[in-house]
Structure formats: structure tokens, C-alpha cells
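Researcher: I'd like a structural prediction for the single chain below. Treat it as a standalone chain; there are no partners to consider.
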Amino acid sequence: MKWLGNNRTYGPTAIATPANFVTVARIMATPIFVLLVITKEPMWLTFLVGFAIGITDSLDGWLARKHGETRSGAFLDPLADKVLVLGGMCALVSIGQFHWLPVSIIMLRELLVSIYRSKAGRKGITVPATRLAKWKTFVQLWAIGFAVIPPIESSAHWVATALLWLATLLTLQTGVGYWISARKLAAEQLGPATSP
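Model: Treating it as a single chain, here is the predicted structure.
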């Protein structure tokens, strides 16, 4: 923990940073959460594990701002979010908590955006997450959270379903935004048309 609290500043090419340590821990802990959902372990345990994993999303962001943001962190953080969101949602589909259609839409969007980011990255272009995309991830995580929250109130499942569809709408909207950006990028690389 002393390592996490040091005041060292890291350059953009650094890999072994406190923020990345937390992000990798989030990725490694996600299969535990998914297994708890699938095996229908006590909901309090599932909720607490998911909540702890979710807290690390804010923690690694704070550490990155404190010690310096890195290119490796810019890659790992959204990857960790995708692993948690898609893993959690697929697990909830498997036990009948989520409908397969919105989850399929979300998975397809994440796949297409990841392909776009990969192609842009090979050209040395960084594609930062938009503010709306960050809200999309936030809503996705809350949808999962309400789906596994202990059944204190019967409205929890209704809230989870509503959040899932809201996340789907945000997913489609941000996907269109990335598609427009991809078209602009392709047009810039082709350059202005020249007449014969």
C-alpha cells in the first residue's frame, strides 16, 4: 500500500504504475464476480465483491491523475471496464436476469469500437473516451449493480432493467459518434480529392 501512496510522477510511457496495478487487479478480480453471479452465491457476497471491484475504477483514475496518466493506462482502464461490463452482463443473461438483446447490442458496439481504436492506434492516433461514453459505462455498471443487489425491494429488478435499456441507448449514441469520427479519420487519410 505504501507503493500506491507514493508521490512519484510517471511519464506517458510508464507501465508499472500504481494506477495500472489497481486496473490489472480489477481485471483479475472480475472472473470471481462472474462466477459468483453464475453460481447464484449469496447475493450480499456477490454485491459486495462487485462493489469493491467498482470502487477500483475510481481509485485507478485518481491514482492516474495524481501520478501522471500513461498510454498503457489509457489502454488498460477501458479494457478493464469492458471485461467487467461484458462479463457481468453475460453472466446475468445466463441466469435470466438480463435480456439477451440489449446485451448483444452492447457487445457488438464494444467490438466495433475496439476494432476502430486498434486501427487508429496502429496509425499512432489515440481515441480518447468521450464524456458521454464515460456516462455510458457508469450506467452499465449501475445496471449490473442493481441486478445483483440483495432483494431488499422488489423494484430493484425493474430499476436494473430500465438502466440496462438506458445503457443500450447510450451505447448506440456513442457508437454513432465513434462511427462519425472513423469516417472523418478515413477522409483525412485519403486527403482531398484531386481532379484528373
